Amino acid sequence: MLKWHDHYYVGESVRDESAVREKLDAGKPVPGIYLVTFSDNPHNILEIIPAVTLFQKTAARLCPEIVGMAKGMDEAMELVQMIVQTVYEETGDVLVEKYLKNR
C-alpha cells in the first residue's frame, strides 16, 4: 500500500484523481502520471517519480510518502515549485517535509 499525505497536491491536468489513486494503490500502471514524494536523500527536498515505476512491487514498497500527483513531468515540476514557494512564503524557510507534516 502506498503512503499518501493527508493533504496531497493534485495538478490541474489530473482528471478523476480518486480513480488514479485507486489504480496506483491497486498496483496498476497509470501512464503519464508523476508523483511528488518526500526525498530519502538528505540533499534533496522532494523527488519526482513516474507512477509507472510503482508497477514493480519493490518500488511501491520503497516509495516515500506521496505529497503530490501531476500529469506529465512539466506539471510535476510546476507542482514542486508551487509547494516549495508556498512553504517559503509562509515560513521563510524551505523545510517542506516539516511544514507539510505539521499542517
Can you walk me through this structure?
The chain has 103 residues and is an alpha+beta fold. Helix content is 39%, strand content 23%. The chain has one domain (4-101). It has helices at residues 17-25, 57-62, 73-91, 96-101; strands at 4-10, 33-38, 46-50, 66-71. Strands 1-4-2-3 form a 4-stranded mixed sheet. Strand 2 and strand 3 form a beta hairpin. The two termini are 23 Å apart.
Largest beta sheet: strand ordering: 1-4-2-3
Distance between the termini: 23 Å
Structural class: alpha+beta
Helix content: 25-40%
Beta content: 15-25%
Give me the strand/helix succession: EHEEHEHH
How many individual β-strands?
A: 4
Shape: globular
Query: Kindly state the mean pLDDT as a whole number?
Result: 93
Q: What is the count of helical runs?
A: 4
Total domain modules: 1
Task: Give the uncertain stretches in residue-range form.
Answer: none
Oligomer: single chain
- How large, in whole angstroms, is the Cα Rg? 13 Å
Major β-sheet, in short? 4 strands, mixed
Q: Tags for this entry?
A:
4-stranded mixed sheet; globular; 4 helices; alpha+beta; 39% helix
Summarize the structure.
Helices cover 39% and strands 23% of the residues.
Topology:
Elements: E1 4-10, H1 17-25, E2 33-38, E3 46-50, H2 57-62, E4 66-71, H3 73-91, H4 96-101
Parallel strand pairs: 1-4
Antiparallel strand pairs: 2-3, 2-4
